[in-house]
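Render this sequence as a predicted structure.
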Amino acid sequence: MNKFFIIAAYNFRDIISRNFFKISTLVISLLIMVILILPDLIVKLNFVSGDSSEYLIYISDGKNYIFDDDLELNLYLRNIEDNLDNKYYFKLVEREITEDKLMDKLNNGDIDGYINVISKNTINIFTRENYPEIKFILDRYILSKKFEDGVSYPNYNFESLSLSKNKVIGVIKNYTYPFLLLLFIYTIFVLYGQFIAMNVNIEKSSKIIDIFITKVRLPVIILGKLFGYLLVALMQLLYFIGILFLITGLMSDKYFPIIKEIIVFDTVFMLKYVLYFILGFIIYGLLFTLIGSVIDKIEELSIGLIPIVFLISIGYFFSMVNLQFPANYLKNLLVCIPFFTPFIVITDNNFVIYKDIVAFLIMMVTIVILVYINIKFSRQMIKFKGKNLRKNK
């Protein structure tokens, strides 16, 4: 057991001294700060609505289905303004102005809305906020015109930026927190995995493993090395989580209401998150160790790592799918696939005991199997290398 901790401590100190550890810690820390600021910044920059009670509405009616000029409408509007809570001014635009230009003016805040008359029976209304009075104004105006074939009220297709704003806020709330947690796992798994595979391959090629194997049992070498890497990765993960909640706690409720609502500490969820991170790191660490020991030349190592990185990416992809479709039944199956479990658990805050127990047991069995495979392949590689050395002599 003493040799196990010596190997773990050596690898722990080795990784901490590496530049990739320092750079990744700094970069992700800065990224956390940027991501925490973005949600409220996006909403404020794109959906700033004024407090004015006077609204400028453009009308696009190229074929004069309903509106011949805006003067008649505005004069009529003055007659019914006592029935309105706000003041409106309508302007009939030239036929050359496209809907894209009108939408740009709306997004830029130059106008408060525009009405696009598609036909006598269809009108599209786009506004910054929900102005139900516009429908009332149009209905009364159409009634006053008394069309030749009788009063005919068109179908209104109403859309406001405030509705889009709610959709954007919903997406932000749904994805920001899981995205950060997934970012930690994805980055650490890929970054440390490549380092593990490269380090194992170098040690094998430099015959360091031959020296170790004469004094320490092979399982102790593999697990000790992996445990050292795990300690560093776990330390880095806890640092990222600490930074996440520390910065969020220091933010003002007034200026960052969305992010303050999103980032909320849940003890049970965080314990489950860390637990599955540990198990997932061990599983992928063993896979990277296996690749590093099997591949002969370090130049070919990058090709061998592609399937494992692809597997991690699939786990990330499935987690995004679960966020998009939270009611799907596929997640109950995916959470039991050990390579995807660390990603899938982030998309489900519900703590279901039987499901978590099953997922935990499957991951533990997978770890045991991978340890056995690693030991078996490592011994075969050592024997094969020994035979080649004897042949060369």
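Summary. The first helix runs from residue 2 to 16. Residues 2-44+171-392 form one domain.
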